[in-house]
Design brief:
Subcellular location: Cell membrane
Main location: membrane
Membrane topology: Multi-pass membrane protein
Radius of gyration: 17 Å
Strand content: under 5%
Largest sheet: none
Pfam families: MarC (PF01914)
Keywords: Cell membrane, Membrane, Transmembrane, Transmembrane helix
Number of strands: 0
Length: 200
C-alpha cells in the first residue's frame, strides 16, 4: 500500500488521534496552571516527535537487526491500528484507547509516550520509511504537519471542548476510528497480498 504525502499525513493524524486525546489531556492537566500547561504540552509533543523521527530513520536498521520483513511489519501495523480503531469506536466517553489513567503530571509518560508516540504511530512511521525510503522527506513533512496539528489541538483542548461539546468530540473520534479501521484492514490485506504473491 503506497502512500502520497497527503495520505501519509491523514494516516498519521488518524493514528495520533488528537481529538481522542482531548479528554485525557484535559483530565491530566486540570490541576496544572495554564501558562505551565502550554509549555508542558509543547514539550510532550516535541518529545513524541523526536521519538517518531528517530524510529523513521532507524526503521530500516531495526528491521534488519530483528530479521523482520516489510510484509510482517505491514500486517502487524495493520493489526495494531485495527485494535486501536476498535477501541476508538466502542470505547466509552472519557476512556482512553491506550488505557491511560489520568491524574498525574506528565513527563514523557503518558502524553508523549504512548498517547502520541504509541505502538501504532511507531509502526506507521517504520512502515512508511521502509516501504518508500526514497520519499523520506515527504514522510518527515507529513509527520511534522501531523504533530503540529496534534500539538495545536492539545493546546486548544479547553476551547475545542467548549465550542464543540463532549458529544461532538466523541462522535468525531468514533468517525476517525471508522476511517482508521478501513486503513488498518487495507494494510493487512496489502501485506498478505505481498506475502502470497512475492513468497518468502
Amino acid at each position: 500500500m503506497d502512500h502520497s504525502f497527503l495520505s501519509a499525513f491523514i494516516l498519521l493524524l488518524l493514528v495520533l488521534d488528537p481529538l481522542g486525546s482531548l479528554p485525557i489531556f484535559i483530565s491530566i492537566m486540570r490541576e496544572v496552571p495554564k501558562p505551565r500547561r502550554t509549555r508542558m504540552a509543547a514539550r510532550e509533543v516535541g518529545i513524541a516527535f523526536a521519538v517518531l523521527f528517530a524510529f523513521m530513520f532507524l526503521g530500516g536498521s531495526f528491521l534488519q537487526v530483528m530479521h523482520l520483513s516489510e510484509r510482517s511489519l505491514e500486517v502487524a501495523g495493520g493489526v495494531i491500528l485495527l485494535i486501536i480503531a476498535i477501541r476508538m469506536i466502542f470505547g466509552s466517553a472519557g476512556e482512553s484507547a491506550y488505557g491511560i489513567e489520568p491524574g498525574r503530571e506528565p513527563f514523557i509518560f503518558p502524553l508523549a509516550v504512548p498517547l502520541l508516540a504509541g505502538p501504532s504511530a511507531m509502526a506507521t512511521v517504520l512502515l512508511l520509511a521502509s516501504r518508500q525510503p526514497e520519499r523520506i522527506f515527504d514522510w518527515i513533512g507529513a509527520l511534522t504537519a501531523a504533530m503540529l496539528v496534534s500539538g495545536l489541538t492539545l493546546l486548544l483542548a479547553d476551547r475545542i471542548r467548549k465550542i464543540l461539546g463532549d458529544s461532538v468530540v466523541s462522535a468525531i473520534e468514533k468517525l476517525m476510528g471508522l476511517v482508521l479501521t478501513a486503513i488498518a484492514v487495507e494494510m493487512v490485506l496489502a501485506g498478505l497480498k505481498r506475502y502470497f504473491i512475492g513468497g518468502l
